[in-house]
Amino acid sequence: MEKTVATLETGTVHEGSIVKVLWVPPEYGDAVACVLDDGTLSLWEEVAGDGQSLQWKICTKFLNKNARVLDIQFGGSSTCLKLVAAYSDGYVKVYELHNPLDLNTWQLQAEFQNVIDSVSKFAKASCLSASISWIPQKGESQQLSFVLGFNSDVPQLNSSKVWEFDQLHQRWLTVAELALPENSGENSGDPVHAVAWAPNICRPYEIISVATQMGIAIWHVGLNPDVDGHLSVEKIALLSGHQGEVWQMEWDMSGMTLATTGSDGVVRLWQSNLNGVWHEQAVLEPTS
Amino acid sequence: MLEMTRWEYVMEYSKEINSLLGTTKSMASIVEDPRRILTVDEEPTSLKAAWELLEIFYADKQSQTWLPERLVDWLADYDNLFSETQHTVYSKLLDLQHHILHLQVIEDDPKYWDCLSSALSLGWLDIVVKLLRLHGSYELDQIGKRETENGLVEAVVVLVSKMPRLRPELQAGRLGECYRNKSDFVKGWETWRARVTKLECSSFWVDCGHQKTREGLRKILQIMLGNTEHLSATTYNWVELYISHFLYIRPFTVGLESLYGLAQKCIQLKPVSHPHSLMGLMVGILGENTEVVLAECSRAFGPWMVTHAIELLTAGNDQSEILLHEVRQNLGGVSIEELHRLVYAQVLASHQLTWQIAPVYLTSCKPGIGMLEILLYRQPVHFKQGLLKSLEICRLYELDDVSSNIMKIAGIHHWKHGRKGSGIFWLQQAQDEIRLNKIAQQLFDFVGKSISEESFKQWEGLIELLGSDTRTAGGLEFLHKYRDFKRSLQQAVDGKASDAARQAVESLIMLMKNSSTPQRFWLPLLYDSLKLLTWREGPLLDVAQTNLLLNKLQELSIARMRPDYVEADLPTQALSSVRLALATNLGRAILEEQ
Which partner for A239 in A16, A209, A216, B543 could form a disulfide, CB atoms 3.0-4.6 Å apart? Predict the structure, then answer.
């Protein structure tokens, strides 16, 4: 959603700078979620009380003593808003908004670590960053999925995994790990700097891009699960070009062009050609 | 018959697009001013030139038999586009035009004769005639002395004007003799050639005293006789040479294969280091290489051109049609045609002034609908005009889900920005039961807590609004009945007036009977009515009414077992108090009725 951000009076509430600002889906009001550099997360909303002028008010603060918030993303549909937050201890929390009119009514729906089998736990994980990307929703489809990768000292947490909400049993499950068969599980481990799930307007498969120190991997993920409930994955390309870390990746609305940027300050656009070969389409460098 | 309509449609489409690209006056057209040979007032664009080239080859099936002449016309219109990077016949003529005013004796200037030959090579006959008429021998005081010379010039003028052309017609004022069919043309061509040869061999040349005139005119005759050396020397790039070959050497060239062969030959004779995009396009077309044509269109003219040109490329060409319409897994399940439409739609979508055109392209292909949904979802809804436009597009393409989502966004925006009426209006339009129920809850709580006239006023209008349309009110419609109930209840409690109490009971029964009253409000309503249920002066509810309420209470107990049941914010003993009060009332009512 495009909008000019009004100045948030964060100084009076928080000391510290904002590391991430994210718009709440517009069906829930004009609101932003802010992650501060001390790892706290708060929600701010533009509202007008009765007979009052518009102002930004804090709706809620998510408290967590043990870990910092690294990344957040909103997902779900116009009837059900969910918030996924990844923490520095390798845990993921999924919150659900109880009252669609009130951004102060969050309930914790699930809490888990980014691992394939739910048995193993990594208590001493230390994560520098995390990246979450929801499946871009179309219409009122009830499918809830997101992909998540960590940049941590625990390889098992790092590898990007696709999580899906199992409506029947009301729980989150990993349905795919974006790793080659020989590298899955313990060996999958390159720290993940960014993930981005591409919009899908007609493909019979999903596309997810994952940035690690090796480059930007383009993954095809099947739509239909096998008997164990897993989705097939295939690494289609590994794109290199950026000097240093890739921080951010964004897909265009057709899901055909990927824009990436990182510590080198250059924006690169990537596309697949008619033969399905991915290549760098354009480079945008800062002018000065 | 069907085939015909198809071509008519394609041609109509092409003409329409072409007209959007502006009008072009042929630069080789006749100008009134006797000393001006070119019009330069309107700059033609490469885009239009490219489109017309596509039209000639792909759309205009009626003029396929005289395609070379179509190309002659095309170059006459667009030769100056090639002048940007290199010499052309056009640039030579332009140069001459600048000098012409300062020339005293035009026929002494070699440029004059060069331009004449060049213009003739490209078939610009009117310019040739006009230039020849500027020849000094026409001046009145000279005719006596230069009679033979003038006679030769005039003889060439006549031959130029009568040149046979294999085409149905010429624009008004244009020179040449038109022949519709080949056999007539061949006869005309042979006669004309014979006359040129006859003049070439005539003895009058000896009597022509002006050397430059003699040489210049004979060169013109050589061009008319198809002298390859002269044609090559008077043209400046392979396209010009190509056109001159059509006119004077191979007027019968038909079929793309031979057209391509001739082009290859001309390219060899006049290679260009940096070919103009139009040249690349022409080679692609002649070589029947659809990919090259598309690549050239895309590179030089951008996504608009490619998107629209595909319509022409696929018209009646099975190979191109397969190539462009085939769904490709590599592209994510779209065809090349669809891909280009999506790309162009994205260009349109990126600007506030053009995004509304994007749906036309998006809805013309299957995958575009998904993108249109994303595009609409991204449009701001805070301004009524924009919102209505988005909704109009949704209605047009039957995107009901998107439409309802947009209305939800608008509804919430207004609701949260102090415009509660508009908020509810849009949520009702969106039939958003979930949000409307939450709003009902808020209003109910408010009305329940305070019914003093002052604070009630601000809600009153809203509640009236909600009552007007029961179908879409989404559980809010009962609120104004509730307000009436609360009023009479208040009066009953305050004044202990039995009339008011009876009225309150009526309202209560109406509310409880009404299916629009949400279940979660039943208990609060009954709890509010405790005073009525235990009225001192005697039971206010009869047996039937009491039973109705008891049944509702029973229903409520069952509903409480469901997981989605929302407990009302009431004291814990509320339910038992209500049950007791109802039981007491029932007992009293039975006694009374006996």
Answer: A216
Write out chain A residues lying below 8 Å of B344, CB-based.
none
Superfamily of A18-193+225-240 according to CATH: YVTN repeat-like/Quinoprotein amine dehydrogenase (2.130.10.10)
Determine whether the interchain pair A275/B330 forms a contact, defined as Cβ–Cβ distance below 8 Å: yes
Band of residue B24 on the pLDDT scale cut at 50, 70, 90: low
**Who contacts A190 (Cβ-Cβ below 8 Å, separation ≥6)?**
A155, A158, A159, A212, A213, A214
Minimal Cβ distance to B412: which of A28, A79, A252: A28
For Cα atoms A125, A130, A134, give the angle at the middle one, nearest 5 degrees. Answer: 130
Query: What are the strands, taking DSSP E only, across A63-204?
Result: 69-76, 81-87, 91-97, 106-113, 127-134, 145-152, 161-166, 171-177, 192-197
Whole-number pLDDT of residue B30: 47
CB atoms closer than 10 angstroms to residue B134: 16
| Chain A residues near residue B402 by CB distance under 8 angstroms | 139
Percent of the residues in chain B that have a pLDDT greater than 90, as a whole number: 35
Q: Which helix (H) or strand (E) holds B425?
A: helix B420-429
Taking a contact as any Cβ pair under 8 Å apart, which residues of chain A between 66 and 125 contact chain B? 78-79, 99-102
Instruction: Phi first, then psi: give them for residue A127, nearest 5 degrees.
Output: -110, 135
CB atoms within 10 A of CB B591: 10
Record the pTM: 0.80
Kindly determine whether residue B416 and residue A49, on different chains, have CB atoms separated by under 8 Å. no
The DSSP code for A25 is: P
Distance CA B436, CA B471 (A): 13
Nearest to A78 among B346, B370, B408 (CB): B408
**Residue A3: is its pLDDT beyond 50?**
no
Cβ contact A196:A250 at 8 Å: yes
3-state class of A107 per DSSP? strand
Order of strands across the sheet that contains A54-62: A18-23, A31-36, A41-48, A54-62
* Whether residue B498 has pLDDT greater than 80: no
pLDDT of residue B32: 58
The chain-wide mean pLDDT, for chain A, equals 87
* Residue of chain A with shortest Cα separation from B377: A1
